[in-house]
Structure formats: structure tokens, C-alpha cells
Amino acid sequence: MNDPIITINGLNKTYKGGFQALSHVDLTIQRGEIFALLGPNGAGKTTLISVVCGLVTPSEGEVLVDGYDNVTDYRQARERIGLVPQELTNEAFETVWNTVSFSRGLFGKAPDPAHIESVLKSLALWEKRDNRLITLSGGMKRRVLIAKALSHEPRILFLDEPTAGVDVELRREMWQVVRELRDNGVTIILTTHYIEEAEEMADRIGVINNGEIVLVEDKQALMRKLGSKQLTLYLNEPLEALPASLDHPELSLSAEGYELIYTYDGHQEEDGHGIPTLLTALEREGITFKDLHTRQSSLEDIFVDLVRA
Amino acid sequence: MNLYPVRAIYMAEMARTRRTLLQSIVSPVISTSLYFVVFGAAIGSRISEVNGVSYGAFIVPGLIMLMLLTQSVSNASFGIFFPKFSGSIYELLSAPISHLEIVLGYVGAAASKSILLGLIILATSGFFVPLEVAHPLWMLTFLVLTAVTFSLLGFIIGIWAEGFDRLQLVPLLVITPLTFLGGSFYSIDMLPPFWQGVTLLNPVVYLVSGFRWSFYGISDVSLGASVAMIGLFLAACLATIGWIFRTGYRLKP
Fold first, then answer.
1. pLDDT truncated to tens, each residue of chain B (253 aa)?
2. Alpha carbons A260 and A248: distance in angstroms, whole number
3. What is the pLDDT of residues A119-166, one digit of tens each?
4. Which among B87, B94, B252 is the nearest to A78, CB-wise?
5. Which of A79, A106, A108 sits opposite B91 (nearest CB)?
6. In degrees, to the nearest 5, what angle opens at C-alpha A62 toward C-alphas A58 and A68?
7. Alpha helix (H) ranges present in chain B?
8. Tell me, what's the pLDDT at B130?
9. Nearest CA in chain A to B86
10. Given an 8 Å threshold on Cβ–Cβ distance, is B95 in contact with A90?
């Protein structure tokens, strides 16, 4: 698949105080994908989104949205984008219906009550349409922000920490909404602190740290490439030390010799050297076990390793 | 130009006026009526005519101008400041909307409210004093130009202000004193020569004078000077707003 909808070339952003928030960022987002941008606090995630959406002026570089430069062809570029910001920012005294309709008008679209109704229903906001925003819960306000972003039928949706402070049930409902949007052809770019969120939803993962993109990878490939696995064998008899034939860096003892831990990655498994070889060696040495447990490192582990590196 | 965003901003701002009717319309009308009672009836009865016009009628243009200036600045500054304060300005800045369209929406709504308010005050004054408007077209021209110019000034203040205190600073410490000292309640002929000279440095004098001329055909300065002053002020505000959008001053980091 090579059908870029956003192309970022050589983006730099240095704020007035001298803080460099983005450094030589090159990034391509493919049409129709869910792209998760991960990074610790202050890594530059929000600055990157803000530059693409026109909220922050870049110091250098260019952003093309569906082929349109977001500075010189800002109308064409921006009308394709919907943004759900991190903060719950709303006109407190407006009704849900009015504020979502306002957003559609602001983005240059003719009034379309049927579309607004459809958006509100898809986000379970229809019953609240005449409520003033100040009376809504935090989760509902978050949905209103999504409704506002979808009011003008964008082809690209930026979700900046979309489920921050949202309970588990609502988070899962939002994930469902995002998947439905993707199924309808909307490209989704989300930033998140919740690795689980990226692991659950993203097609590709980008990691940003200190303003630099340190990795962009297909999620499954990333998990395969960097994810390590661990097999723990609970031995019948404790071992004081590993026999010479098992003395490899991947093997270690713990729990006073009652647990044998084997750490390996996807490649060893594919090459046919992994667990079968170990089990044969154990049998040869007369080492028996009563139980076993396997664990695969999560995206969170991978992320922490990358950022620390 | 796309008129949908302009309409969206304009209607949202006018809706805010309807929600705050008491503060937006009723309050200025009541305070103006009090000016009529105090200056027009109580004090005015002891003052003879000014340039052939009864004192009560003489102060009508000045009072309208006082409300027009303060309300234009206040409406427009609050209109753009509030989204900045609440954070919802992200939507405005990320929308496919030109700078001109943003200004038309916010300043158009603020000026509309002020013009409406000016006309309501004009009608209210009819209950207190006999009114005549010698040059109605000029009166409307001054009304519209002043409302637009000071709404532009308010828009600038709304962008400049970083807190509610600064939002009130210019209207309270600059606009109101200049209006009070700008011939709203007196003709500058009534001042000693030195203070007449000082007063001519006050730009509001030209606005009040021109507006009063449209009512009664009397003025402190020439009509040309009044028109030139408001034109100058309008151009300065437009240039400042152009600079704000070009540089992203207090809008975009």
C-alpha cells in the first residue's frame, strides 16, 4: 500500500524560548490506516499534530495533505482534516446541536441537519442534543468534541489522547467508533499514552521522542521484530547451576533454582531453534518440570525499550 | 470567499447576545436613561441652550457615542477572547477560513450589536427630549463607521488580552475617559482656550463632533476632520489586525 494522504518533509519547530519541539520530522501517513503516534510527555506529539492542523507555525519544512500544502493551499488541506484536541474545550453554554452545527459551518459546509443527526446518533449523543455542554459529563464532552470534528465529513481525523480520563467502557465504545470510521475510509491518526490503545487499534505505530521520529513500523511487524518472548519452566527438583550444555545467555535460573527462564525472540522460533531444542536438551540432562508459563512482551515493553535507547 | 463560516461565527455571536440579553442590551439602555435623568433633567434644567440646542437634546449624540464606543470594544474583545480563554479557538485556527472571514464574522456581529444598541438608545432618548436628525444618512454613516472601527479595536484588544483584567483595562482606562473628555456632555467652546487645544488631541472629540453635526448641524470641528479621523482610525485598526494574522501574534506559537 503506497497511497499517502499526509506527507511531512523536514519539519522543524523551535519555540520562541528556544525549545526545539520537532527535529527533522519526515513522516508519511497512508490513506485509510489507523496510525498511532506514541511518545512520552513532551516528546512532540501534540506539536506535530498542531503543525499539520495549522495551529502552530513550523520553523521549517512542509506538510502536504492529500497533495495540498497546508500553508499555501490551507483551505483544501484543512477541509479534509478533523481534529479532536486533548483538552476538553467547549463553549459551556451552547447546546450539543448548536455547537456541532457551528463546527460544520465554520469548516465551510452548508447546513445538513441529517448529517448532524447521523453523527450525534453514532456517538450516542442524540438524546443529549438540546442539553447545554456545561451539564454533560467528561465522557460526553469528549464525544461532543469528536462529533464537532466529524461534522464537516473529514477524510482525516486526528485524535489527540482521545481516551484520556475516560472510563474503560466508554474507551471501548470509542474504539468501536474509530474502527467504524476507518471502515468508512477515514484515515485516523491518534496519539496516546495508553499503549493498550495503540496495540488494540493501530495498523502502524510511530514513536516520537525528543522531537524526533525514532521508529515507524507496521504494528504486527514491530511486535515480531522487537517483541521478546519468555518461557518459564517450574522444575520438579531445584538446580544449583545450569549444566554446561544449557549454559546459554538466553537461559537463567530463579526462585532458588526451581524456575528455569528461557528468553527468546521471534527469529529463534522461526529458525526452529527455540523451544523444541531446549526441551530436547532438558530431556537429555534428565531435568523434569511440572508446569510452564509463556509470556510475550507487550507494545508497552517495546516502547519503553525504544525510548530508553 | 466562503460565506458559511462567516455566517456560522456571526450567528453564534448573535446567539450569545440573545442569551445575555440583560447584560448586552437592557443594561446599557438603563444606564443611558440614568444619564438622561441626571444630566438632562436634573442638571440640564439649570444649563441654558448650547448653540441653540437644549442641553438634554445636545447630549444625545454624545451619549449614543459613549455607548457605541464602549459596547463595540467590549463585545468584540469578549467575542474573540472567550474562545482563547476556553481553548476552543483551536477550531477557528484549524478551520479552512481566511483571516478576512474571521474578522467579518466577529467584528460584523459586534458592530451589528452596537448599531442595534445605538438605535435603541436613540429611540429611548426620544422619551426624554425632543429629537431631530438633520442629516440621517450621515448619522447612519457615522454610526456604522464608528461601530465597525471600535469593534476592530475590540478585536485587537481581545487578541492582546491574556486575562479578564486586561480585557477591561482599555475600555475603562482609555475609552471611557476619552469619551467623557471628548465633548459628550459639553461643547469644547465652553472650555478655556488652553484646554480647547488639549482637547483637540483627543480623537473621540472628532467622532462626537461629527455625529452631533449629523443631528443638529453644529460641530466643534469640521465634518472633513471628523471623517478623516475615523478613516485614519479604521485604517490603523485594519493594519494592526493584518499584522496580527501575518505574524500569528498571541494566536499561533
1. 889 999 999 999 998 888 877 777 888 888 888 887 887 777 777 777 777 788 888 888 998 998 899 889 999 999 999 988 888 899 999 999 999 999 999 999 999 999 999 999 998 888 888 888 999 999 999 999 999 999 999 999 999 998 888 888 888 888 888 888 888 888 888 888 888 888 888 888 999 999 999 999 888 889 999 999 999 999 999 999 999 988 888 888 7
2. 12
3. 999 888 999 999 998 898 888 888 899 999 999 999 999 998 887 767
4. B94
5. A106
6. 120
7. 3-19, 21, 27-35, 55-86, 89-94, 99-125, 136-160, 164-170, 176-180, 193-199, 203-216, 223-247
8. 82
9. A89
10. no
The CA-atom distances, in angstroms, between B194 and each of A266, A309, B87, B173, B190 are 93, 76, 49, 23, 12
A294-307 per-position pLDDT tens digit: 887 766 777 777 77
Q: What is the CA B18 to chain-centroid distance, rounded?
A: 19
Cβ atoms of B238 and B152 closer than 8 Å: yes
Q: Cα torsion for A233, A239, A241, A244, to the nearest 10°?
A: -70
pLDDT at position A252 is: 87
Residues from chain A contacting residue B8 (CB–CB below 8 Å): 102, 104-106
Mapped onto helix, strand or coil, the DSSP state of residue A264 is: strand
Compute the distance between CA of residue A135 and CA of residue A132 in angstroms, rounded to an integer: 6
CB B89 within 8 A of CB B253: no
Tell me whether residues A108 and B12 touch, CB distance under 8 A.
Answer: no
CB atoms B90 and A89 under 8 Å:
yes
At the topology level, CATH places domain A227-297 in Alpha-Beta Plaits (3.30.70)
Calculate what percentage of chain B has a pLDDT beyond 70: 100
Domain A4-224 sits in CATH 3.30.43.10: no
CA A214 to CA A303: how far, in whole Å? 11
Q: By the 8 A CB rule, do A120 and A69 touch?
A: no
Short-list A268, A269, A258, CA closest to A291: A258
- Rounded to the nearest integer, the mean pLDDT of chain A is 87
* Smallest CA–CA distance from A77 into chain B, residue: B96
DSSP letter at A128 equals: G
Give per-residue burial for A108-125: e unless 16+ CB within 10 Å, then b.
bbeeeeebbeebbebbeb
Cβ separation of A83 and B90 shorter than 8 Å? yes
| A81-84: strand order across its sheet | A81-84, A156-160, A187-192, A34-38, A204-209, A212-218
Q: C-alpha cell of A39? A: 511518545
Distances in Å between the alpha carbon of A1 and those of A4, A205, B51, B211, B216?
9, 16, 83, 68, 76
| Predicted TM-score of the model (pTM) | 0.83
Q: Is the pLDDT of residue A109 over 60?
A: yes
Which chain B residues contact residue A75 at CB under 8 A? 2, 96, 98
DSSP assignment, residue A153?
-
